Amino acid sequence: MQGLSVFAESAPLAIGSALLLGVLIGSFLNVVIARLPRMMELEWQDQADELRGDAPAERERFNLVTPRSRCPDCGHAIGALENIPILSWVVLRGRCSSCGKAISARYPIVEALSGALCALAVWRYGASAAGVAAMVLSLYLIALTFIDLDTQLLPDSMTIPLLWLGLGLNLWGVFATLQSAVIGAIAGYLLLWSVYWLFRIATGKEGMGYGDFKLLAALGAWFGWQLLPAIILLASVVGATVGIALILFRRHGRDVPIPFGPYLAGAGLLALYLGKPLSGLFGLA
Q: Quick check: 133 and 170 in contact, CB under 8 A?
């Protein structure tokens, strides 16, 4: 990519630019995290109305752009100066300028995390196609993590494009060979699909959602089948540890589901930076 040549000549410039860009995109990710599940819910309602033969419900246009961001308590429209990533939250001391209600610290956290992971991607892979791809994957995984934490959903509109993007990148072997990526996508889906059905047959309950299958398939498409054992092991161990801790220390009910997507996403990020050592643990490097 010739457009990246300027940044390739200066690592500090490239990393700093990635940090700034990541923070800016992180602000948009907050919108995606908040609105995409609601957009899905409205779409399901419209589909249900259509099946019942009812007229579509009239409602305010709602998407990632419209309406403008506003305070959920008083409806105050967020102005441009109140929407500067991280800085506005700090200046406003985490409160709405109109009604004084607290603004969740998640907003600056998502922005800072996005910036940090984008900077890390360019530090690790440089101002290259792999560096840009690593940034994109990191941002996707951040959004999927918080959506799953909020709603226990992993939207097809995000997981499936992520899978195809991984396969597309590996046409040129960016992170794995194409053959390894295709096998990884197939194996990733079938692994969790098999676990799901074995658990359902044994207990009569659903242990995870189909979105988890698709996310692991996407990670298989990005990194190849060799990293799937490490990703599954890391996600399972951390997920089990956190689940037990929640039950013991926060009285989290045993029947209350715990989303698995965030642990898959975390394991995917580790695979992005520690791929060879992780696959080496299983003799698959």
A: no
In which element (H, E) is residue 122 found? helix 106-125
Assigned token pair, 40: 């899905």
Torsion of CA 121, 127, 129, 133, to 10 degrees: 20
Mean pLDDT of 216-228: 96
pLDDT in tens, 170-192: 999 999 999 999 999 999 999 99
Q: Could you give the count of Cα atoms lying within 13 Å of 88 in the half-sphere of its Cβ?
A: 17
Q: How confident is residue 72, by pLDDT bands cut at 50, 70 and 90? A: confident
Q: What is the mean pLDDT of the chain?
A: 88
Q: Are 219 and 180 spatial neighbours (Cβ–Cβ below 8 Å)?
A: no
Task: Please return the burial class of 29, using the count of CB atoms within 10 Å of its CB with bins 0-12, 13-18 and 19+.
Answer: buried
Q: What phi and psi values does residue 95 have, to the nearest 5 degrees?
A: -135, 150
Helix (H, G, I), strand (E, B) or coil at 79: coil
- Give the C-alpha separation, 260 to 243, whole Å: 10
